[in-house]
Amino acid sequence: TSPVRATPAPARTAGPRASPSTVTKSSGVSSAPDAGAAGAIALVGATATGKTAVGILLAEALGTEIIGCDSRQVYRRLDIGSAKPTPAERRRVHHHLVDVADPEERYSAARYRDDVLALLPVFAARGRAPLFVGGTGLYLRAALEGLCPAPPGLPGLRRWITAIGATLPGGLHP
């Protein structure tokens, strides 16, 4: 095994607020942490800080593949401004969850979690630790810790809000 592992920093608390490690998780399916992510390694940070280059070197050294952890890199054809790995970088190390959705599609932290959960057995079967590389902390938390249960969407709510927006002088942002 490699000495490189993701180690969470101690949670900081303000007053009586509980740290994430003491918060009881719901038993809902989408909220439970996934044991298949054991040994996961995460390289996260701001855009243009060299995560991709370091991630590729790390993946090569560990003999693993990268799971993209970026809310913009999931979209096809959004190459400018998203700092996607180049085709040459993607040939060096396989990158999962890059270019998996069309810009017209909704891609959420919940969908990202589902996509990661589908990948974890592949990593486990190969005996490889998943290497998350990116800058979207919410996606990483969703994948490793789960999401709180959310109520289902309300059918028709978007249409209703859009109809109201059409009556306003400047409309509403889509």
Short account of what is shown:
The chain is of the alpha/beta class. It is 32% helix and 7% strand.
Q: What percent of residues adopt helix (DSSP H or I)?
A: 25-40%
Count the E strands: 4
Number of continuous helical runs? 5
% residues in beta strands: 5-15%
Query: Secondary-structure element sequence?
Result: EHEHEHEHH
For the record, give the distance between the C-alpha atoms at the N and C termini, rounded to a whole number: 48 Å
How would you describe what is shown here?
This protein is α/β, with parallel strands linked by helices. Helix content is 32%, strand content 7%. Strands 1-4-2-3 form a 4-stranded parallel beta sheet, with helices on one face. The longest helix is centred in the last third of the chain and has 18 residues, at 109-126. The model is unreliable at 1-31 (pLDDT under 50).
